[in-house]
Amino acid sequence: MKRFLLLLLAPLLVSAESPRLVPDVSQRKIEIIYSFTGAELLLFGAILYPGGRVPSDDAQIAVVVKGPSEPVLVREKRKIAGMWINADSADFRSVPSFYALASSKPINKIVDGRTAVIYELGIDNLQLSPASGGDPAADRHFEEGLIDLKRRGGYYSETDSGVEISEGVLYRARIAIPARVPVGHYTAETFLIEKGRVIAAATRDIEIHKSGMEAFVARAADRHSFVYGLTAVLLSLALGWAASTAFKRLRD
């Protein structure tokens, strides 16, 4: 809520003489079909300087592509009496399903820590909202584990020097979308940073959804879960019986 209010007030705090961003993305809609192996988004745009002002050499760009947030329960397994069992756990209320940051320079070199937290610039500055209300050290332990899983799955990434700025006016960046990306509403946020401050920001929307057979299967699983489960079991039994019959014939 605090970040939301700050973002609402940000335009009021920016001078009328501040630059303005005109961003766009190469794809506003991404369809996931059976052959989907991932995609690459091109984020590009221009910085409009009022009054023909010469662009500042210090101006930097950061772009963030963020997926829909969701609650996540993180469990930690421990080996007890020779068996791995669930031990401690932590709930997080607002975990982005996807997060990718690209910036013209390392983010910690162009903004201070407070600004990075306000705008969630950087994976370590994400506000995951732990629901436990317990020991902060324990929450941080689970948060680090969750972020590590997201990184290894290709869902969280940071790319220093991933934004190219031409003539101080035009910029572009590429963000990789993994094959198993969650569906939903995504945002592509662009931030213009000068002397450690965010002086302009703009957002474009992106929709990622399933189509074709994938969409049919997903709808069936959601709307008719019992029939879907029963069909899956019967199909598995039929395939097992067919494989067993074929194997016996080969042996004979």
Defining key terms:
alpha+beta; 4-stranded antiparallel sheet; 252 residues; single chain
Describe the fold and architecture.
- It is a single chain.
- This protein is of the alpha+beta class.
- It is built from 6 helices and 12 strands.
- The chain has a 6-stranded mixed β-sheet. A 4-stranded antiparallel β-sheet has the order 1-3-10-9, with no helix packed on it. It has a two-stranded antiparallel ribbon with strand order 5-6.
- Helix 5 packs across helix 6 (225-251).
- The radius of gyration is 23 Å and the shape is flat.
In what order do the strands lie side by side in the largest sheet? Answer: 2-12-11-4-7-8
Q: Round the Cα radius of gyration to an integer and report it.
A: 23 Å
Give the N-to-C terminal Cα separation. Answer: 70 Å
Unreliable segments (pLDDT under 50, ≥5 consecutive)? 4-15, 212-221
Tally of alpha and pi helices: 6
Q: Biggest sheet, in brief?
A: 6 strands, mixed
